[in-house]
Amino acid sequence: MLSSNLQLLLCLAGSICGLCAPPPESCKAYPGTSSWPSAHTWAALNQTLNGRLLQPSPPGAVCHPSQSTYNTSQCSLVADEWKTYEFHVANPISVMWDKFDNFTCLPDENTPCSPAGYPAYVVNASTAEHIKIGVDFARKYNVRLNVKNTGHDYLGRSNSPGSLSIWTHNLNKITYNKGQYKLNGSGKVLQGNSITVGGGSEMWDIYVAADKHHEAIVGGGGKTVGIGGYITGGGHSIFAPKYGLAADNVWEMEIVTPGGDIVIANEDRHQDLFWAMRGGGGSTFGVITSVTLKTHPSPKIMGVAFMMFTDPKESIVFDLITYIVSQIPILMAQGLSGYNLATKNMTTPIQIPDVDSPDVVAKIFNPINETLHERWPDKVQFYTLLTQYDSWLAWFSQNYDTNQAGGSQYLVSRLLDGEALTGNPQKLKSALQAAITPSGTISVFMVGGKGVQEAKPRGGSNAVNPAWRTAYVHALTSEPFGPFNKTAENNAKAILDKEFQPLRDLTPKSGAYINEAFPFEKNFQQTFWGSNYARLLRIKREIDPTDVFWCAPCVGNERWEVRQDGKLCKK
């Protein structure tokens, strides 16, 4: 009897001790809590970084009397520049769109201001070693890690409140490699021209450097698009229909891994990481410190603005739009590409690389013009306006993205294959009508096609969404909303989700481009990565078992969530 009582007592004692034991750490360290590193610890990190640790105030704080950086003269300057991409690029914590810092400090003294929506500290990195030190610190002290270059991110992945942020802006060295390139490690020689750029390089600087050698890269449509996030998302381009996506043109990368290793990844070294970093998404598998890209001869470009006019009240409006969109595979087969709009009166720019004759353009568009007049006589007018450019840089200088930063919006997108565009005109018409009606327009980017479908990336494949390999069109639209208006924000989400559902239904086996997409896709894993997701998740768990890198919607983010108090915690 005594023995039984003793066993019961020991069992109870064990249960009580288990209840009293501290729970395992379930949240990342957060400013103001006991888990946050001490001021002394942060000072030591700054010393290790030789003074490159920043503790910046929100850029809008200069407009708020309650903030230590308040300055009326600076406020006017900041307010004036807030809608420019360049302002946010040059600031270590600012991002392009206000929603992603939760409107915590706008340059308006009549709104609230606090640092709660921004990273707490920033590593101003100019070497891979600086990034390694930051990653090691975040891993050791369980601090949430953020990565920002330009802040040009439609999904908000380059801002994490209460984090340690890696700012790659000053990793911007650019080197042109003429004739051949020797892979690090294996010594394999790749034939052709290439360019090696720092992970913080921006499109304009790369284009200018390549143009000096009469070359171009498969690159983005905005001057301030950063190379790191662009490549890790896949990277569409008007050159993609000929040369494949940007990720298909990568030869080699230098990467800082979640474990703090500085590695060279190519087809012969760290193959899984090389595969994942080309299309698997940013802020997930590591930080790109440099990347080597294949370059291509800079072509002459014929810019074509084709315009289709009819009475917007005519019942044929969406029949006309559907017909033009259905012709995209034929147009792209003849070399056309571009960032196009579908509107009730269709006016859209496209490009034809390596064409300098108006006769070529007329031959391409005459069948379309004839069909329009045969099917809808006297109800439609069709014109083309041609502009010749002597090089890629000449075209880009006049046609880069001139949209404004500041404000807030969400995007939604879908990749459309040949079957969607040509298989069932009535379903395509209904889907386009649903997508166009709320805002009056959608973008119909001709950036897929043969070059993407037949791409041969180094190593045989990469992590780009397989839906790209059948796509012709990247269709997208956006919905804006104002600050401090949750109803308007929720309405924007609902509108976008509803208006693109018919396009999803039209393309059940397709997906979307991760860098320009709806952040709230119900099955983001399938939508953004398709059949590649299982391999990506395995790689993520192998190289980052404790989730040093985390973002949403990103590979492997299922184990964590951001709570209302801003903390990142395990589910």
Report on the structure:
By secondary structure, this protein is an alpha+beta fold. Among the domains are: 39-167, Uridine Diphospho-n-acetylenolpyruvylglucosamine Reductase, domain 2 (2-Layer Sandwich); 174-298 and 533-547, Uridine Diphospho-n-acetylenolpyruvylglucosamine Reductase, domain 3 (2-Layer Sandwich); 301-390, Alpha-Beta Plaits (2-Layer Sandwich), CATH 3.30.70.100. Helix content is 33%, strand content 20%. The protein is built from 19 helices and 22 strands. Strands 5-8-12-10-11 form a five-stranded antiparallel sheet. Strands 1-2-4-3 form a four-stranded mixed sheet. It has a four-stranded antiparallel sheet with strand order 15-19-20-18. A hairpin with a 5-residue loop joins strand 21 (560-562) and strand 22 (568-570). The chain is globular and about 80 Å long. Mean pLDDT is 93; it is low at 1-23. Belongs to the oxygen-dependent FAD-linked oxidoreductase family. Pfam families: BBE (PF08031), FAD_binding_4 (PF01565). Its cofactor is FAD.
Average of per-residue pLDDT values? 93
Instruction: Briefly note the CATH topology name of the domain at 174-298 and 533-547.
Output: Uridine Diphospho-n-acetylenolpyruvylglucosamine Reductase, domain 3
Q: Helix proportion of residues, in percent?
A: 25-40%
Q: What is the topology, as strand order, of the major beta sheet? A: 5-8-12-10-11
What is the CATH class designation of the domain at 174-298 and 533-547?
Alpha Beta
In the CATH classification, which architecture of the domain at 174-298 and 533-547 applies?
2-Layer Sandwich
| End-to-end gap | 45 Å
Q: What are the low-pLDDT stretches, counting only 5+ consecutive residues below 50?
A: 1-23
Largest beta sheet, briefly? Answer: 5 strands, antiparallel
Please, what is the oligomeric state?
A: single chain
Structural classification: alpha+beta
Characterize the overall form.
Answer: globular
| Residues in β-strands, percent | 15-25%
Number-wise, the strands total 22
Evaluate the radius of gyration.
Answer: 26 Å
Helices, by number, come to 19
